[in-house]
Amino acid sequence: MPISVLSVASEVFPLIKTGGLADVVGALPGALAAEDVAVTTLVPGYPAVTEALQDGREVHAFAELFGGPARLVAGTAHGLDLIVVDAPHLYARSGNPYIGPDGRDWQDNPLRFAALARAAAEVGLGRGGVPQPDVVHAHDWQAGLTPAYLVYDGWQRPATVMTVHNLAFQGQFEATLLPRLGLPAHAFNMEGVEYYGAVGYLKAGLQLADRITTVSPTYAQEIRGPDAGMGLDGLLRARAGQLSGIINGVDTAIWDPAADPFLPAPFSPRQMKGRATAKAALQERFGLATNPNALLFGVVSRLSWQKGLDLLLEAIPTLIAAGGQLVLLGAGEAALERGYRNAAAAHPGRIGCVIGYDEPLAHLIQAGAEALIVPSRFEPCGLTQLYALRYGAIPVVSSVGGLADTVIDANEMALASGVGTGLRFQPTTTLALEGAIQRAAALHADQTVWKRLRRNAMATDVSWTNPARRYAALYRDLVGNRTP
Q1: 232 and 337 inside one domain
Q2: Which candidate, 188, 209, 191, places its Cα nearest to that of 141?
Q3: Is 309:330 a contact under the CB 8 Å cutoff?
Q4: Are 471 and 449 found together in one domain?
Q5: Residue 75 and residue 54 in contact, taking contact as beta carbons nearer than 8 Å
Q6: Which of 88, 270, 375, 465 has the fewest CB atoms inside 10 Å of its own CB, making it the most exposed?
Q7: Residues 156 and 288 in one domain
Q8: Which residue from 194, 190, 193 is spatially nearest to 205, judged by alpha carbons?
C-alpha cells in the first residue's frame, strides 16, 4: 500500500544547509521512493529555496500568518517535491536561516518556526490545497509544534512522527508567547507544550507525536538518562515504548569517491591510486609537508564543546610526537577557532586549518586523510564518520551515540576476525583520545593491517537502503493502527 508523508523541516540539502539535518531531509525522500513511500517536504521560503523552486503553483493562502500574509507554493527543486511557506515577512532573509548578521538568533524565530508548524498542520489536516498525507513527520525543534497544532485542532488528523536530530537544541520560549501562537490555554500544561514554565517546541513534539525517533539506537538509549537527556529524560523514559532509533544513511550518489567531481582523481576499493593523488592535493592545499607516508588526520566539524574539539587541541603534542599531520575544516566557538589557528602557526608543515565551511574541501579531506577524528562528547548519529567509511579515511571516534553504532573498533579480536572498520575510544577524555591516536599510529605503521581496515571501511553499507526500510515500516505500522 502506498504511503504519503509530509516531511517538515527548517532546512533541506541542497537548497539550504547548516548541518546534518539538511542532508537527512534531502536524501530520505529518494530512498523512501523505493519503499513505495511518497514524501513531500515542507520548508520555509528562504530566498535560496524560492529561487530554486520550479513549476511553483499556489495551493493555499493565509490572510495572516504571524505578522503578514503568506501562501503555500507547491513545486519541485533538485528532484524534491516541495511545499514552500512563502512568507516574506518571516523568511526573506539571506544567509544563515537562524542567525542574523549580528551573530545572534533572529528575535522572531519563535514565530518564524511556529509558522512552519502551523502551515504543516494545515496541510496535515487536508486544508492546504493538496491531498491529506497519511503521516506528518516533523524534524527537530523548528517543526516541534506541528504535532501540537494537529492535536489541538480537534479535526481528524494524520499519524505523526517527531525525529530528534540533536536534543541539545530544544526551542524554549517565554510562556507569554502562547496566545500569539494560537494554541488554546489548556495546551499549557505538562501533558502539552509547557516545559519548566516556558513553551517548549521540541518538548511539545516529543509529548504529542504518535511516535518519536532519533538518529541512532544508542542515542535513543542515552537520552533516556540524565547525562544525555538534557532535562527531557523523564519524558523520554515515560514514552520509551514510542521511542526508537534509526541510524542515518548518506547519499551515496553525492558521496561517491569513484565519481566525485570535487576530487582530483577518482578511486574505488579496487583502484586506490586516486586516493594517493587526493592526499597529495590535501597536503598542498593546507601547506603541509608532501609526504605520501605521513599519518594524515582530518577533521570536518563544527568547533564546539559538544564535538570535543578542545580535547583534540590538548592532544596535539601526542599527535605530533606520533609523527602525525592534521588538517581541520570548521567554524564555531571563537576560542577553538583561535586555538587551531595558533596550533597551525606553531607547527608549520604539520598542522593546517581552514576556518569556515567549504563543501568541495570537505570531500577532499575525506578522500585524502588517512584517518578522520570525531571526538564528540555526545553525537546523535554523525554523518562525517559515515563519509569517512565510504572514502576510506579510518574513523577515530568516541564511543557514544551513532559513532558507537557505526564504527567497529579494530581491537585485537576484531582484527583477528577481519571485521574492524575504525578506532573507538572511551571515556571521552584527552587521555583516551591520545591513546586512540597512538593506536592509530601503531596500526598505520603496519600497512598490511591498515589497508585491510580501509577495505573493511569502504565495504560498509552506509547508504539509506536499510534506514529507509525501517522508516517505511514505522509509517506502515502507524497507518495500519490508526482508528478511522
Answers
A1: no
A2: 209
A3: yes
A4: no
A5: yes
A6: 270
A7: no
A8: 193
How many structural domains comprise the chain? Answer: 2
Does residue 451 have a known ligand-binding role?
Answer: no
CA–CA separation, 355 and 339 (whole Å)? 11
Q: How many Cβ atoms from other residues are within 10 Å of residue 226's Cβ?
A: 10
Residues 331 and 232 both lie in one domain: no
CA–CA gap between residue 188 and residue 203 (Å, rounded):
12
Q: In the prediction, which pLDDT does 155 show?
A: 78
Same domain, 97 and 243: yes
For residue 234, being part of any structural domain is answered with yes
Residue 259 domain flag: no
d(CA 293, CA 19): 32
Phi, psi angles (nearest 5°) of residue 449? -65, -45
Distance CA 148, CA 140 (A): 14
459/392 Cα distance (integer angstroms): 9
Structural domain that includes position 181 = 3-249+465-480
Any domain includes 18? yes
Kindly state whether residues 93 and 155 are assigned to the same domain. Answer: yes
Q: Is residue 268 part of a domain?
A: no
Q: Which three cell numbers stand for residue 229?
A: 537527556
Q: How far is CA 379 from the centre of its chain?
A: 10
Burial (CB count within 10 angstroms: exposed 0-12, middle 13-18, buried 19+), residue 335: exposed
Above 80 in pLDDT, residue 1?
Answer: no
The three three-digit cell numbers of residue 170, written as one number = 530544544
Report the CATH number at residue 216: 3.40.50.2000
pTM: 0.93
Q: What is the pLDDT of residues 232-289, one digit of tens each?
A: 999 999 999 999 999 999 999 999 999 999 999 999 999 999 999 999 999 999 999 9
